[in-house]
Amino acid sequence: MPDHPSAYKATWNHLAATEESALMHVAGYTDPEKIKEATDITLMWLRKCLGIHPMDTYLEIGCGVGRVGQALAPQVHRWIGCDVSEAMLGYAKNRLASHNNVDLVPINGFDLSPIPDASVDAVYCTVVFMHLQEWDRFNYVREAYRILKPGGRFFCDNANLDSDIGWQVFMASAAIPPEERPPHISRCSTEPEIRTYLIRAGFQDVQTQFAGVWVMGWGVKSFPSFP
Ligand SMILES: C[S@@+](CC[C@H](N)C(=O)[O-])C[C@H]1O[C@@H](n2cnc3c(N)ncnc32)[C@H](O)[C@@H]1O
Q1: Which of the ends of the chain has fewer CB neighbours closer than 10 A, N or C?
Q2: Using 50, 70 and 90 to split pLDDT, how confident is the model at 226?
Q3: pTM to 2 decimal places
Q4: Residue nearest to atom 19 of ligand 1 (CA)
Q5: Angle between helices 7-15 and 19-26 (to 10 degrees)
Q6: Is the pLDDT of residue 3 over 90?
Q7: Which CATH number fits domain 7-220: 2.40.30.170, 3.40.50.360, 3.10.450.710, 3.40.50.150?
Q8: 64-80 pLDDT, tens digit each
């Protein structure tokens, strides 16, 4: 786990030194069929929790090689992929080359400063929180709130500590001596943690759900109320 947000960049550029290594660290396999199966499940959750509409501008925090963007870009007005790793974004650029409604944006590992306030309709962050320190998870939730238009939707997930597989992930990490822990080691969340981030960031209609190892949370940015 990097000590400082800037260390995320070096860590993930290194993990993405080859396309095979990038895919292994994004998905755990390189088989296109298995990647498509996993992506279909991600899209199913986005459709259920946020909705996917043709006029939406969608943004992914930690987009990796563009696994989700490849399937989502044809269904929305604009898809923006943000990632701390320029190497990951390079693979995403190739994967998404046939789409003319895609922007790929390098970020600093901490915030979404290149993205203007109230400029997107939906933001999601999947399979990323496990690699972030808690403060950085929350900061991305807060940043998602900032860049969403009123009425905009946000989704995030993490491995759930309070599940059997989540506990296995926890114990596998616990077995690694402290001095040997890799900087991208997986760290789980709990449902109250995810719910707290969404509520503290200001989201309304906050909901959470469990599925297998995952805990997911989503909410809506409310419209300003006028006296
Ligand atoms: C396991 S991959 C998941 C990629 C993508 N979300 C997917 O599901 O296919 C984690 C991604 O998060 C990115 N990442 C790691 N730390 C980050 C940070 N602090 N800020 C933004 N992206 C980060 C990595 O570069 C990598 O692309």
Answers
A1: C
A2: confident
A3: 0.97
A4: 109
A5: 110
A6: no
A7: 3.40.50.150
A8: 999 999 999 999 999 99
Cα of 131 vs centre of ligand 1, distance in Å, is 8
Look at the block and give the residue holding tokens 């070096």.
10
Using CA of residue 184, residue 190, residue 193, residue 198, what is the dihedral sign? positive
104 is written with which tokens? 């790929």
Give the distance (Å) from ligand 1 centre to CA of residue 79.
16
Residues whose CB is less than 8 angstroms from the CB of residue 133 and which lie 6 or more positions away in sequence, other chains included: 1, 2
Nearest CA-CA partner of 119 in 78, 69, 85, 66: 78
**Mean pLDDT across the stretch 113-130?**
98
Per-position DSSP letters for 138-195, written without gaps between them:
HHHHHHHHHHEEEEEEEEEEEEBTTSHHHHHHHHHHHTS-GGG--TT----B-HHHHH
Work out which ligand 1 atom sits closest to the CA atom of 16: 25
DSSP code of residue 218: E
**Confidence band for 227, pLDDT divided at 50, 70 and 90:** confident
